[in-house]
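Supplementary Text 2. Reproducibility record for the structural model of the 181-residue chain.

All settings were left at their defaults, and a single model was retained for analysis rather than an ensemble. We include the record here because the model underlies the residue-level annotations in Supplementary Table 4.
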Amino acid sequence: MLKQKRKPRIATSYRDQLIGFVKAYRKKHPGPVSLYKVAIWAYEKGLWEPRRIRPATILAKELKLAAREDRVTDPQQRKLRAWLPAKIERVDRKGNRVFDVVWDHIFEMSAHHALLFLSQQYENIEKQCRSHGRVKSSILENNRNCRELQLSLFDYDFRYATGEPQQQVVEQIAESSVNTK
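Retained model, structure tokens:
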């Protein structure tokens, strides 16, 4: 008797597993889906179980959400985010590149933090606009329900942008000098 070759097991990423839930749900419920309903369905079917998370990780995520929502009014009566993040690169003890996000108050941060925040935010906006343009083009070219749409309203022109995305400004600091306030 010949021994059959086994197919190699291919590990799927957690993200691929999550998208698999959405695809499986859509097979039974065609059309647009509520991800909340997909989550309930996947949990009730036993496809997903919550991961154990350290309390500090949960609190850090909640702090991030609170910081993003905190608003102040400047003397010119503009409503603004009070806390602004900047991504800072460092190298850990094992030589891995690690990116920390540090937050500072809009009226108290250093000029360096402001420059990092503004340049990183601008790059993110530029990337989102480029992505939006690709999605818009694909919809118009590949979705027969949308070919007749006129979407010139969604054309972007960056005054300061060049054809290619610019290198993001990221501060590099030694591991021993990380200051996360």
